[in-house]
Amino acid sequence: LLINKPDGTFLLRFSDSEIGGITIAWKFDSPDRN
After folding, report:
1. Strand ranges (DSSP E) for 1-34?
2. What is the pLDDT of residue 31?
3. Does 1 have pLDDT greater than 70?
4. Which of 4, 23, 25, 34 has its CA 20 to 30 A from that of 12?
5. What is the predicted pLDDT for the residue at 34?
6. Which Pfam families has this protein been placed in (predicted)?
7. 3-state DSSP call for residue 2?
8. pLDDT tens digits for 10-33?
9. Integer Cα distance of 27 and 22 in angstroms
10. Of 33, 28, 30, which Cα lies nearest the Cα of 7?
């Protein structure tokens, strides 16, 4: 979902099954990655 988005893009996903449940995902390119 985030692979084609620019660096710094983030996604918040709220849980329907757990009250107060949230998942945060973000995209960044690490200069150390080979």
Report:
1. 10-14, 22-26
2. 76
3. yes
4. 34
5. 60
6. SH2
7. coil
8. 999 999 999 999 999 999 987 776
9. 17
10. 28
Q: Are 7 and 28 in contact (CB under 8 A)?
A: yes
AA identity, residue 28: F
CA distance 6 to 9: 6
The Cβ of residue 3 has, within 10 Å, a number of other Cβ atoms equal to: 5
Q: What confidence score (pLDDT) does residue 11 get?
A: 96
Location of structure tokens 């099954």: 17
> Are the C-beta atoms of 22 and 14 separated by less than 8 Å?
yes
Structural tokens at position 19: 């009250």
- Output DSSP code: residue 15: -
